[in-house]
Amino acid sequence: MTDSGLPGGTFTMAKGLTVTRVGYGAMQLAGPGVFGAVRDHDEAIAVLREVVELGITHIDTSDYYGPRVTNLLIKEALYPYPESLHIVTKVGAYRDFRGGWPHARKPEQLRHAIHDNLINLGLDAIDVVNLRMGGGEDGHSLVHDSLAEPFEELARMQQEGLIKHLGISTVSAAQIAEAQSIAPVVCIQNHYNVAHRGDDELIDSMAAQGIAYVPYFPLGGFSPLQSDILNSVAERLGSTPHAVAQAWLLQRSPNILLISGTSSVAHLRENVAAAGIKLSDDDVAELNSIAS
Prior knowledge:
This protein is an alpha/beta fold and 292 residues long. The chain has helices at 41-53, 69-78, 107-121, 148-159, 173-180, 200-209, 228-237, 241-252, 265-274, 281-288, and strands at residues 10-14, 17-20, 24-25, 58-60, 86-91, 126-132, 163-169, 187-191, 212-216. The longest helix is centred in the middle third of the chain and has 15 residues, at 107-121.
């Protein structure tokens, strides 16, 4: 336990940037498909305020959630922000009128996106900005393009004081190395969970370098995790599959940060409590077999 009272401890992403490993992802506060207005405005505000009350110091968002919906809710609920709170956003896409996620990685698009995030969050500088590179037909697979041009633009905005730290999302090891040749990288956001473990080697590499790894779809995303093994372990522990999946991630590596999202105060509290589950070596070995 940490001073915040949260299980999982903290992780230092950079000097002056230490966050609770149990964070909060704001994506689900937007409408269905992360598009359109919030479904329950008062509950959304209550969730965000409960995040801070619980001691969580890491909120993940993006101005293209909604679009603008989650950022405006965060500002309404929490501005002026507690000094301990760190907001992480991402750029590299936009929402079209059908709710799609086209790429938006040209320098002028990125600069526009950063200013939109700053305005809608009410910030002078953003703690961390992730450049979203991948997508593919399924929305979260790798696209092996060079990230030099967009990442260099973000690095320029970092030098201008608009961004404090940089990260990258949906990327390969080669793209990470390319980014590191341009500017320091403090976090990686990729698709990873107990059943989708293609980044095992990458996580260990990032841990050795002191770089945070933030798995999105930690509970399966739009297709919730389904596993008889996961269900069996959860039943044995008197818990839920989602809780066990989160506990597994926290025990997988000390550099993993959780950003599980919810639009319910009760579910938020359950997520935080779930992170305190201690898995035995036998539990972990059984869960590891899911992806074998």
